[in-house]
Amino acid sequence: MLIAADVAAAPAEATPGVMDGEILGQLGTGGAALVVTVVLWLGMKATADKGRQLPWGVVLLLGAMSATLYAAAGGFWSMPADILGELLIAVGVGTGTGPAGNVGMGAVACVCAAVIYWRKLTLPQLAVMGFVAAYVAGRAGGIWGVGADLLASLGRIVGA
User: Fold this and answer.
1) What is the largest CA-CA distance in the chain?
2) CA distance 102 to 95
3) pTM score
4) What is the C-alpha separation between 62 and 69, in angstroms, rounded?
5) Half-sphere exposure (CA, 13 Å, Cβ side) for 123?
6) In a 3-state reduction of DSSP, which class is residue 98?
7) Contact status, residue 120 vs residue 134, Cβ threshold 8 Å
8) In the chain, where the domains are located
């Protein structure tokens, strides 16, 4: 038996296209976090004979961007940042009462920058350091906050 559709039904609402600012379609922050995670994972696992490996700078940027997207997405995505924040508090960073004295987030941001610049990190290590650096920079203020704000703006654009 054939059932005819209701003639008075409203047509499906058109989704925004490229001209409306949605270049990749509607991602959402959770979707953007998923995409960045998959791209990082696949791009770091690639070898010369299997796929294309991500360059150093792209891994650092995506690692840093993942911190912003994970925090914005919430839910289980925010767990890595929550754990990192608790670890920093546990060692007294930013509290003024830590075992090393008054170590602020600015000092941790400088240490992250030094490790990224002077240590020869593997791509997975670099992605983790990018995540940590972005998390710390967002709480350190100063020049570090400018970079974190830029990442947050880029994350809003991608995950809007």
Assistant:
1) 79
2) 7
3) 0.78
4) 10
5) 17
6) strand
7) no
8) 25-159
Q: Using CA atoms, how far apart are residues 73 and 139, in angstroms rounded to an integer?
A: 18
- Per-residue pLDDT of 113-149, as tens digits, reads 999 999 999 999 999 999 999 999 988 988 888 878 8
Residue entry with tokens 């995670």? 37
CA distance 34 to 121: 24
Selection from 133, 142, 146 nearest residue 65 by Cα: 133
Confirm if 144 and 106 have CB atoms less than 8 A apart: yes
Query: What one-character-per-residue DSSP string does 13-37 give?
Result: PPPP-GGGT-SS---HHHHHHHHHH
Angle at 73 between CA 72 and CA 76, to 5 degrees: 125
Tokens of 67: 């911190």
- Closest by CA position to 132, among listed 72, 66, 73, 69: 66
Looking at residue 58, its amino acid is V
